[in-house]
Amino acid sequence: MIKNYLKVAWRNLVRNKTHTFINAAGLSVGLVCSLLIMLWVQNELDMDSWFKNSSRIYSVYELQNYDHRLHGSYNTPGRTTEEMKKMLPEVQYGVNMGFDQWNTFQVGDKILKIGGTSAGDDYFKIFNFKLLQGSAKTALNTPSSLSISRKMANRFFGSADAAIGKTIRYENSKNFTVTAVYEDMPNNSSQKFDFVMNWYQFLDENAWARDWGNQGPSAVIMLRPDADPVKFAKKIPHFLDTYNGTDRKTSNFIIDLGMIRYSDVYLRGNFEDGKFVGGRIEYVRIFTIVAVFILLIACINFMNLTTARSVKRAKEIGVRKVVGAVRSALIGQFIAESLLITTLSIVVSLGLLVVLLPLFNQVTQKQIELPFHDAAFWLKLVSITLITGLVSGSYPALFLSSFNPVKVLKGTLKLNTGTTLFRKGLVVFQFVLSVVLITGTIVISGQMNYIQSKNLGYDREDLVYIPLEGTLTAKYSIVKQEALKMPGIQSITRITTTPTNIQNGTGGVEWIGKDPNVSIQFTQASVGYDFVKTMKIKVLQGRDFSKDFVTDSVGYILNEAALKRIGYKNPIGQPLTFWGKHGKIVGVIKDFHFNSMHEEIKPLILRCAENENYGSILLRTQPGKTREALASMEKLCKQLNPAFPFNYNFSDAEYQKLYQNEQIIGKLSDVFAFLAIFISCLGLLGLAMFTAEQRVKEIGIRKVLGASVSSLFRLLSSEFIVLVVIALLIASPIAWYATSKWLQGFAYRTPIQWWMFALSGGLIILIALATVSFQSIKAALINPIKSLRSE
Predict the structure, then answer these.
(1) pLDDT tens digit string along 526-544?
(2) Do the bridges between strand 57-66 and strand 69-73 make them parallel or antiparallel, or are there none, so unpaired?
(3) Left if phi > 0, otherwise alpha if psi is -120 to 50, otherwise beta: which for 449?
């Protein structure tokens, strides 16, 4: 019987090639969109969850209670896990990890800048990256140990085997021994390090990390197999009290520890008021819903396009029933047709997937591969095929098999009001989803334009960062002196971190009138002379740091937010104590964005440190002369610092990196909104075909009585425009709510304006008119003699 169903289904599909092509095209586009999103979602969910003991690996975070609020952070003191292993028997392994860093390595004449990190010697015991050479026990067990990736081993030594035991020069200051070579970190790992050096190297370079009062490194622990995570989580909140001398009865600055599954950090790593509030998991949820919606739209198309042919197949069904076909057999036949088209669409979509995946990876900045070797992938594919086939084929099967054979064969078949309303409801539903996607795309685009065009409080054009490394640190004064003589360079200064990502915070600030019961955290950075001038930040009161004032070594510049918290009415010359150093306020600058627009501008204090031993050079070039200036700087840096390659970054490019996720989401939204509209228009075309077939005799009579083509076009089109308008009215509040929720993730955001909904509605109406016009005009132009011949 099943073989017969498939045979008849295939004959019907071949006989109606145009209808089959449109149906399969709609389903194929919907399926390829859904499969792409499914692969992306699965890649996100798999991130960091593949480690052997993933269920026992936890990240430790801090909840800092100050200024009457809880602030969450993954920054901890540099000795946290060391003490946890000693004091808490549930902890089997623990590592502190440093920041992502780029360092210069040298072997012979080959000098390369490589990205990596520092970690404790339990690193490879917790994270079971495949070791090609060496063992987890000895990979990082001495201060001179260095573990490198296969890629780094190949670049320096030719192979992993040749690298083990070899010496490699670090920052032209220290020799390390390669004690392990690990396989390149996989795509589903958030860690992408090409080297891991021993933790003591980090502590030597960052002595502040040994102090329990400082936070910065991250902490990861692995519990013993018999440890209860719930009970352990209740033991650690007050763990730091002993080490940082906190008295919870009197202190106004309290730190609690907490823990979260390491595999959850990637997706759920955002804090708000001390609680986890989404993160990338929000995008996973959004695009999962989008995938379901697009597949639903495609299924609805199938229903509309199939039932649009009901008049042509009515007599076939009538004859089948007269000769004895029962309804269940007819339902089976139509379901078979649906499954056959769905299977063809799946095959087509897999072909499209192979072609489109490289482009998709380029847009999403991922390296997703088609998991043809994974049985679970094929199981999901089969499930999608069956569900899509059954959902898309169920209504046409039930609808077509319900025809009364007497009415059909007499030519008096007329569809009831309920059937018509259901079909129109499906089209409205399609366009509701399309309007939501279009409006979301417009709002995302508006927010990204807002971010790009907003005045940041400084000029990011023609601003270049050059890392201070090697001998440049000690020779900064020479670099500055020579650079100012070069053509194309306006000004030069230095800063301990990049101006787009100033994160260092402190509560060690005192001033006259400070409330001793309140702890206020300030963001801080050390900068050189002429910092405000180079950044082109507006000075509200006072002045910039200058070499003409010796006292600037204990001088401070505040932003507006910091001045507001301190409360001085006439701040210039007022005393301020920073980390025990007594000084005075020399300037107040206008607030500028030194983090992403997801965060409010925080109170900022700038300290003068012209001779700090780390950080970056900030170079302001003259417009149009950046290339010339960089060529001169490269020549100078190579002359003063020959053991290091010349590196630089543009401020504008660093600013763009803050919004990589949003840019990717924006691009994906554009594509999926367009495809949703395309698929929806196929559904509208199906309804137009259906309506034209149902009203063919009515149109003939109207033409005989003198109706013009334009009046018939308006008659047939107005019905569809009404459906689109209804969809707009339903979709607008949904779109407003969804986009408002998304925008809440930005402290600075563009307002949602009426024209965004008007633009979305106008686009949908124009597209709908373009879609139905062809079928409507075709129906209006038909010769009435043909349509009324049977009368």
Answers:
(1) 999 999 999 999 999 999 9
(2) antiparallel
(3) alpha
Task: Identify the three-state secondary structure at position 601.
Answer: coil
Q: What does pTM read for this prediction? A: 0.81
Cα-based angle 125, 126, 129 (whole degrees, multiple of 5): 80
Backbone angles phi, psi at 258, to 5 degrees: -145, 175
pLDDT at position 324: 65
Strands 254-261 and 174-182, bridge-based pairing: unpaired
**Helices 417-453 & 709-743, crossing angle to 10 degrees?**
50
Please report how the helices 417-453 and 754-781 are oriented relative to each other, as an axis angle in degrees rounded to 10.
140
Residue that has been written with the tokens 């998709």 in this structure: 360
Task: Provide the pLDDT for residue 790.
Answer: 53
Task: List the one residue out of 253, 259, 290, 200 whose CA is nearest residue 71.
Answer: 253
- Residue carrying structure tokens 């390491």: 262
pLDDT of residue 2: 56
Residue 468's H or E segment, with its range, is: none
Strands 218-223 and 57-66: antiparallel
Question: How far apart (Å, rounded) are the C-alpha atoms in residues 130 and 161?
Answer: 14
Three-state secondary structure call for residue 454: coil
Distance CA 466, CA 449 (A): 28
Cβ-contact 117, 100 below 8 angstroms: yes
Instruction: Collect all residues with Cβ–Cβ distance below 8 Å to 30 and sequence separation of at least 6.
Output: 294, 295, 297, 298, 299, 301, 675, 679
Q: Residue 585 is encoded by which pair of tokens? A: 């306020």
Q: What is the distance between the alpha carbons of residues 106 and 452, in angstroms, rounded to a whole number?
A: 39
| Angle, in degrees to the nearest 10, between helices 709-743 and 754-781 | 150
Mean pLDDT of 66-85: 84
Q: How many CB atoms lie within 10 A of CB 707?
A: 16
C-alpha atoms less than 13 angstroms from C-alpha of 65 in its C-beta half-sphere:
12
Please write the tens of the pLDDT for every residue from 172-229.
889 999 999 999 998 888 888 999 999 988 888 888 888 887 888 899 999 999 999 9
Q: State the amino acid at position 452 in one-letter form.
A: Q
Q: How far is CA 704 from CA 124, 170, 710, 716, 777, in A?
A: 85, 91, 15, 17, 17
Of all helices (H) and strands (E), which one includes residue 637? helix 626-640
Question: In whole angstroms, what is the distance from residue 518 CA to residue 100 CA?
Answer: 34
Could you read off the pLDDT of 102-128 as tens digits, one per residue?
899 999 889 999 999 999 999 999 999
pLDDT digits (tens, 9 = 90+) for 597-651: 888 899 999 999 888 878 899 999 998 888 999 999 999 999 999 888 888 888 8
- In 264-323 the beta strands, taken as DSSP E runs, fall at 271-272, 275-276
Spatial distance between the Cα atoms of 743 and 750, rounded to a whole number of angstroms: 8
Rounded CA separation 144/135 (Å):
16
In the chain, the amino acid numbered 721 is I
DSSP 564-575: HHH--SS-TT-E
Cα–Cα distance between 565 and 588 in angstroms, integer?
Answer: 13
E-strand spans in 394-501?
463-467, 489-495
Is the Cα torsion angle 350, 356, 360, 366 positive or negative in sign? positive
Of 311, 336, 315, 306, give the one whose Cα is nearest residue 423. 306
Question: Which residues have a Cβ under 8 Å from the Cβ of 59 and sit 6 or more positions away?
Answer: 74, 218, 219, 220, 259, 260, 261, 262, 265
Separation in Å, CA 269 to CA 46, 86, 238, 275, 434: 15, 28, 22, 10, 31
Those residues with Cβ within 8 angstroms of residue 122's Cβ, 6 or more apart along the chain or in another chain: 81, 93, 94, 95, 222
Residues in the chain: 791
What sections of 658-708 are H helices per DSSP?
660-694, 696-704
Alpha-carbon Rg of the chain, whole angstroms? 34
> How far, in Å, are 399, 618, 716, 728 from residue 643 at the CA level?
78, 21, 77, 64
3-state SS track over 518-570: CCCCEEEEEECCCHHHHHCCCEEEECCCCCCCHHHHHEEEEEHHHHHHHCCCC
Identify the DSSP state of 98.
-
